Inverse folding.
């Protein structure tokens, strides 16, 4: 039983990172912290995908006489390339998200979800949202 956890410790890490990311996206009302939670969740997906593509005894896909020409002796580089592309796209998304948050903060004066929603709908902000902070500090 213990060997199962030591062999698959990466999956435990993935589950913990996913839980932290989901908590950050759904439970925290600050928009910047939601984006950070999304990045943590994306990182968990990257780790899961890369760990699933690892082949025991495989080597880099460079033909070598010692390993022969059989494809089973080499690792597939495609998952690594897809994750590299996903990282680049993720960085672009985070950049756009922070640019939009800057515009939201300039327009509303806050990055708190309830305050921004109240100002956009024309209602007065709730006292609970004001106590949570205006989004500039922690």
């Amino acid at each position: 039983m213990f060997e199962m956890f030591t062999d698959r410790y990466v999956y435990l890490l993935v589950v913990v990172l996913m839980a932290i990311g989901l908590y950050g996206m759904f439970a925290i009302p600050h928009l910047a912290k939601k984006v950070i939670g999304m990045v943590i969740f994306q990182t968990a997906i990257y780790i899961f995908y890369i760990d699933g593509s690892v082949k025991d005894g495989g080597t880099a896909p460079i033909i070598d006489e010692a390993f022969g020409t059989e494809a089973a002796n080499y690792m597939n580089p495609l998952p690594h390339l897809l994750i590299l592309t996903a990282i680049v796209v993720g960085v672009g998304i985070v950049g756009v998200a922070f640019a939009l948050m800057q515009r939201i903060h300039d327009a509303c004066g806050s990055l708190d979800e309830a305050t921004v929603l109240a100002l956009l709908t024309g209602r007065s902000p709730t006292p609970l949202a004001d106590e949570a902070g205006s989004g500039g500090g922690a």
